[in-house]
Design a protein that fits this description.
- The structure is a single chain.
- The protein is mainly alpha-helical.
- It contains 18 helices and 7 strands.
- It has 3 domains: 119 residues, Arc Repressor Mutant, subunit A, CATH 1.10.10; 174 residues, no CATH class; 83 residues, no CATH class.
- It is 62% helix and 5% strand.
């Protein structure tokens, strides 16, 4: 269904006129009158408009409006014009009662829109910590009850509460980003502090985020909620009974559709509570931390901007950004900074790759080849033979074995490079077909470059008699 198939096409035209402030206040008066009285006579609405909007009606200019001369003459006529204008645009309707008096009736679409307008205008503290506990409480009471209808109704109520909770979390997430954007335009310390502690602190943190951590905690009630839902989802007889109750309550056209709808809602709630902390609460916490850090840095910057280099640079860039063509200021600071006036933005305005300079030929550098030193090579070979000779390796292995006949590689305790080299040389010096076969039997590999074995056994060689 299309939007203007539900509401009149000119419903919002008064709010786009030059007198939109007056019409918005008149709609708020209509909302209060509609909520306070079941039957709203037209004369009562007229009296309320006169008493609450008297000064605005007197100061308003209705130029271009289809107001009669008689209506324009005084406040009473202008109040009558407001009623006629709002009625013609579809905000309310009139009906004549049994006493021949005219009464105001508000259509459903108008009632919802008026409720939204009033909530936007209302500045009283809002608390949003009822959805999770409400879901838990409803399911717990229904679980302990023997009435099948209560269990069925509890599932639909839990589904509605979970949807409302998701909508609330989405609203809080985007609201934090809204305060983040508002902070960018603030240039006074007191303004930033008031926005952070009064507006953000009271309307976001205290109203929604803090209750979700303490009073209406998702981690606290998640497991009990999921336990009840999963126990119901696994009981076929109970599901059939709840489906019959849902069919009697006109929630579906067949028992099978009602049963499928109940299971779909149960699984949806269960999945949402599984992912709620990761997908919603953690993201909101990240945004809050970013906003708090930015607010702290903003206050620090605004406080010290006249005392440090960063503050002076901020003042300079702010002055450049506010002046559309700051040619004089650019000319003054050009000798000190490499600043250039940017009159338009393109793909290379913010950054472009720096092209390397042209290479120049230089004189070639001769590389002299050095002959190997025979004495140094002999000393190195002698050092290797003395440190890592067969006798040294045998002594090292004997130290590993001690009094045992078998020693495992996990017990060697290799702590330094020398121990590691000795373990390699111990295998390389015992290269024989039987040793290689034993290593392969243990699941290892053996090559000229070394060996790899999950767990090596070192056995004491038996002396031939």
């Amino acid at each position: 269904m299309k939007f203007f198939d539900v509401i009149p096409s000119e419903l919002f035209s008064p709010l786009a006129s030059p007198n939109r402030v007056l019409y918005a206040d008149a709609l708020d008066v209509l909302y209060n009158a509609y909520r306070e009285n079941l039957k709203l006579p037209e004369d009562m609405l007229y009296s309320m408009l006169r008493s609450k909007l008297e000064q605005q009606l007197a100061d308003a200019s209705f130029e271009g409006e289809d107001i009669d001369v008689e209506e324009l003459r005084d406040v009473s006529g202008r109040a009558r014009f407001l009623i006629r204008k709002l009625c013609s645009k579809g905000w309310f309707e009139k009906e004549r009662g049994d006493d021949f008096e005219e009464y105001i009736t508000v259509p459903s679409y108008s009632s919802r829109i008026l409720e939204l307008f009033h909530q936007l205008r209302d500045d009283s503290p809002i608390r949003g910590y009822s959805y999770v506990f409400g879901t838990y409480s409803t399911l717990k009471v229904a679980y302990e009850s023997d009435n099948v209808y209560d269990k069925m109704a509890a599932i639909y109520s839990a589904y509605d509460n979970t949807q409302s909770l998701i909508n609330l979390l989405q609203m809080v997430y985007h609201n934090v980003k809204h305060y983040f954007q508002m902070q960018i335009d603030m240039q006074e310390v007191n303004e930033v502090l008031a926005a952070h502690f009064n507006d953000f602190g009271q309307k976001v943190v205290e109203a929604y985020i803090r209750p979700l951590k303490i009073k209406d905690s998702v981690p606290k009630y998640r497991v009990p909620i999921q336990s009840v839902l999963r126990s119901w989802a696994g009981d076929d007889a109970l599901l059939l009974a709840m489906a019959n109750a849902a069919l009697q309550d006109k929630r579906g056209d067949t028992v099978e559709n009602c049963r499928a709808d109940l299971l779909r809602k149960i699984f949806w709630i269960d999945e949402r509570y599984d992912n709620m902390e990761h997908d919603y609460l953690d993201e909101i916490d990240t945004q809050v931390r970013r906003y708090t850090r930015a607010a702290t840095q903003k206050v620090e910057n605004l406080t010290n901007r006249d005392q440090n280099v960063r503050g002076n640079l901020n003042a300079l860039l702010t002055a450049l950004s506010r002046n559309r063509r700051a040619s004089n200021l650019v000319d003054q600071i050009q000798p000190v900074f490499q600043l250039y006036e940017q009159s338009f933005l393109s793909e290379k305005s913010l950054w472009h790759r720096k092209r390397p300079g042209k290479r120049t030929k230089a004189a070639p550098v001769l590389i002299q080849e050095t002959t190997p030193d025979a004495d140094a090579a002999a000393q190195a070979a002698q050092l290797l033979r003395s440190e890592y000779g067969r006798a040294a390796i045998a002594a090292y292995v004997q130290g590993w074995l001690g009094e045992a006949d078998v020693c495992y590689s996990k017990d060697l305790g290799i702590q330094d490079d020398k121990s590691y080299i000795m373990s390699l040389l111990a295998v390389l010096t015992s290269r024989d077909p039987a040793a290689e076969h034993q290593i392969k039997e243990l699941g290892g590999t053996f090559s000229e470059n070394g060996y790899s074995i999950p767990q090596m056994q070192i056995r004491r060689k038996e002396k031939k008699r």
